[in-house]
Write a structure and sequence with these properties.
alpha+beta; DNA Binding (I), subunit A; 2 domains; two-stranded antiparallel sheet; two-stranded antiparallel ribbon; 6 helices; 4 strands; binds zinc ion
Amino acid sequence: MTTKPLDRLMFVQGGLCFFCKQPMPKSEASVEHLLASSNGGSNNDENCVVCCKAVNALFGSMSLKEKFQVVLNQKGQFKCPNGAGSIKPAAKPKAKPKVPATVKTDKFKLVVANLKQRGNSKPRTLKTLTSTIASLFPKGISQAELAELIKQLEITGKVVVTEKKLTYAL
Ligand SMILES: [Zn+2]
């Protein structure tokens, strides 16, 4: 029993599209005659590859020269028109931010509330404000988070930093 060219070439190419090197289900694979049959190309394996149906359809009966042009235009990163070649390895799910936004908001609220409570004895310099905020989080707070909180205070206009003096609008 002889194997069908498709099966044979699939095996030879390790199940990958000749052009885009992506794994193809057999249903998406087709035999491409490098030199088109209509141009006298043979059915022999040396003239045939298996590739995504999409690129086979694109090539149609292009001359070998035109096909080369298409291939070379891809600059070594061949993508079949069905996009198979553009499949990127599954993107890693983005690591969740260490501090969920709600927690951050809570912290911000806590800072604002605490500053309000301080009445006239609010920190007057950025340095004391920083240490005041830090002291509100006995479990520890990262420098980045501290900076973020102070930035938030500034952005929301609750603290105005001028020449190292702080004014509050809580
Ligand atoms: Zn392909």
